[in-house]
Amino acid sequence: MGKKIIDKWLDLYSNRVHLMRTSATRDLMSTAERADVISFAGGMPAPESLDKEAFREAVARVLEKRAEKAFQYGPTEGFYETRELACQLMKRAGLKAHPNEVIVTAGAQQALDLIAKIFLDEGSEIIVEAPSYVGALNAFRVFQPRVISIEIEASGLKIDEFVRILEEKSIPPKFVYLIPNFQNPAGTTTSLEKRKSIAELSKEYKFVIIEDNPYGELSFYGKQIEPVSLFTDNAIYLGSLSKIISPGLRIGWIYASPPILQKINLAKQGADLCSSSLSQLVAIEYLSIIDFDEHIRKIRKIYSEKCKAMIKALEEFFPEEASWTQPEGGFFIWATIDAEIDTDDMLSLALEKKVAYVPGSSFYYENGGSKSMRLSFSNPSPEEIYEGIEKLAAVIKEQIALSKSIFGFYDKKGDR
Ligand SMILES: Cc1ncc(COP(=O)(O)O)c(C=O)c1O
Fold this sequence. Notes:
Elements: H1 24-32, E1 38-39, H2 52-65, H3 67-70, H4 80-92, E2 102-105, H5 107-119, E3 125-130, H6 134-141, E4 146-153, E5 156-157, H7 159-168, E6 175-178, H8 192-205, E7 208-212, E8 235-240, E9 252-255, H9 258-272, H10 277-289, H11 292-317, E10 322-324, E11 332-337, H12 343-352, E12 355-356, E13 358-359, E14 372-376, H13 382-415
Parallel strand pairs: 1-12, 3-4, 3-6, 6-7, 7-8
Antiparallel strand pairs: 2-9, 4-5, 8-9, 10-11, 11-14, 13-14
Bound molecules: pyridoxal-5'-phosphate.
């Protein structure tokens, strides 16, 4: 047993500290990382997607040819060549950006934190999808915004609801945070029609759109729908190498208009001065070594096969009370159980059976998601997926049977 740690500095912390949440995903990492647990919890890339030989070669080249630059401070906005690289990747998504319109960040996560810092005061209104990426919700939370959550459906945000909220407000929300492609956690994709509508609404009501797109390249069918940022300059676009190359590099970027970038630059100076020079140069070398098109084809196939394996196992093992989303790319399936169960409570039982998921409530700013769970298929092998879903299904069925016996008992009692 670990020793209980008494925090004698409790009176000294800022109020902000008490608003900080650790995400269930992060907490689970240590349990989920145990070799005997099949984890559908973390959004980690497939180990087989990393080309270790190419990384070895990239690091060797940097050490041999560019060590002086690699081990120095770099510019806050990132090296020009990293920003050029970001522009090349955005071009594949249909965006024509100039390197001067880009700032390199320590992953898209830092971008979210910096954006929150420059836009949010206590009580600032923002709109998020429900459910949404827990790392963004937590980054926003410490600035005490008023968060309006709008449910999503298979084609993305419920637009009627969005319009109704915009019409009600005398002051529009500061921003709406969207993950249009293969959403984390729901696996859904925003339709082209909705992307255009949201862009139009941003012009009519004057709010900013945060378009977070780390999964766009990971379409199982090879098609990327045009980003929202193509239809309006009110958008701030976030990209990342984490899901397509490696999260260990911690390289992401922000593409936005110059005044916004200036503010982001100031905020980043206070956060870390600059992103790692070494990482940036290794990423550039790595991308010059691999055949990027071939790499993307390979990883799309990996994730598409894993997704298929998960859906097949869900169909085979999950009870009839369960339903789930049908992602067309990315890492995640969102499953919902229409019965008296609570996925937060059920997690410890699943862990006992050596299988992990993230409870749905983690992805809601306030309440929601208690009958849902995020199942990530990106990291385990297809065989592990099959085995893990079978185990998880047994836990769910047990819970449903238990709840039926309890609630059934009350029903009968009520009848008498
Ligand atoms: C939607 C979304 N945004 C941002 C991030 C953070 O990614 P990065 O590794 O680039 O910081 C993640 C990671 O899971 C994510 O799913």
